[in-house]
Structures are given as structure tokens and as C-alpha cells.
Amino acid sequence: MKVLGIDIGGTGIKGAVVDTKRGVLKSDRLRLLTPESPTPDAVAGVVRTLTGHFDWDGPVGCTFPGVVRDGTIETAANLTPDWIGVDSHALFAEATGCPVHVLNDADAAGVAEVAFGAAEGRDGVIVLVTLGTGIGSALLVDGHLVPNSELGHLPLHGGDAENYAAESVREHESLSWQDWGSRVGEYLRMVEELFWPHLFILGGGVSKKADRYLGFLDTRTQVVPARLLNQAGIVGAALRAEHELPARKHRKK
Q1: 72 phi and psi, to 5 degrees?
Q2: CA 149 – CA 16 distance, rounded (Å)
Q3: Percentage helix, strand, coil, to 5, in the chain?
Q4: 218 and 123 fall within a common domain
Q5: Cβ(212)–Cβ(176) under 8 Å?
Q6: pLDDT per position as a tens digit, 10-64
Q7: Is the Cβ–Cβ distance between 63 and 104 less than 8 Å?
Q8: Cα 18 from chain centroid?
Q9: What SS3 class is residue 189?
Q10: What's the chain's Rg over C-alpha atoms?
């Protein structure tokens, strides 16, 4: 099956058509900038542009950088506060004319890594961490997702952990890979004390540069880069839409 996957981030919004049976992109990926004022209407406009670019009228899976419960946006730390309480399924369906399923962005990456990536076939507790504008997380237990873990907002040094160890912080503070890797390792050790995971998977755009910082993390737990790299969110959104959209339709009857 082919599903359009869209990954909404704090700086960019990416989309591609996904072959959900193989977990690969069936089109070139298109990335557009997140609007400077990322309100619901503004972001919905970008999502509309992406579906139009792909001439798409089928199912759409869409990630969101915050807590999403049954389509309702509960948090939006890197967007605008007027997202809170928005029915994202209805918003994006109206904007695109397509059936849309929305989930947390790191959760989508976790779903993809279980199906086709570094968590495939792995039991136990696995924590996927996405390092980008903020820090996202997916908590996986024996291959099953525990949604909306939001471990990037754990307190560290008097604020959210993402304000100390996100990729955007490395860029903003011009940190060396060693200094930033030490910060990420400090964050991961805190997560270790809470969940005692069997594996950490690091995703986000910086995952393709993992060889520059993995050696500085100093954790008990094995740490590996996401196998799907920065495509994991797109693929996971498509996979979840394929599964959830028919179930939603059935529940409404």
C-alpha cells in the first residue's frame, strides 16, 4: 500500500509517498520551511501544499512535535500555544481533502524503527530519542509503543532537557561534538535511571553523523543510530495511518 507520510518539525515540514510494505520512499522527499509563525492554519497550509505537490488524494499519515491524544493536540512546545485543543485530524483533513491520521513525531519514528529499523525483532525496553529542534522520545516495550512519552521535557539543570542537549542547542552554542556528546550522554544516563532500557536508538537529522558523537556518550546501555535516519518519521506516520484510519472508520459506525 502507498500512503503519503508528512513529518512536521520545528524548522521544516517534509513529505514523501511511502511503500508501507517495504518501508521505503516511493517518491523524492520534499521539504518546506515551517512557517515563521507556525499557527494551525499556517501549518495546515504547508500540509495542503505538500499533498498538492504529490497530487495526492489517498490516506495521509502526519507527525506532530507534541503530545497527540486521539487527534487532539495537547502540547506544542516548539510551535504556537493556539495549537492546544485543536482536532488535528479534522484540521488536516479539511485542508487536504484526504483522510489524515496524526501522531507524535518521535512515536512515528519509533514505529518505523520497530518495523524496518534498529528495533526490528528486538524485545525488551527500547527508547528512541530524536535530536533536532527539541528532543523527542518513543518508549517501546517488546515492540509495542507506549505513546507520548515526551522524555525530552524531563528536568535537567533547572529546565527541560531539550534546552540543554538538543541538536539545536549544539548549533546555537557552537558546541564541539565532544562537548555536545557529553551533554547527550548526561541526558541518556538520566533516562537510564528511570527505565533501564535494553537499547537506545538516536534519530533525527543528526543521526547520519552519529560517528562524530557516539563515542562521547558514556552510557551503560547500547546506543545505535536510527537505521531509517531522518526518514523514520515519514515512514512511521504512513505505517500508523495505514493501521489507524480503517480502525477509526470502523469505530465511527
Answers
A1: -85, 130
A2: 26
A3: 40, 25, 30
A4: yes
A5: no
A6: 889 999 999 999 999 999 999 999 999 999 999 999 999 999 999 999 999 999 9
A7: yes
A8: 16
A9: helix
A10: 17
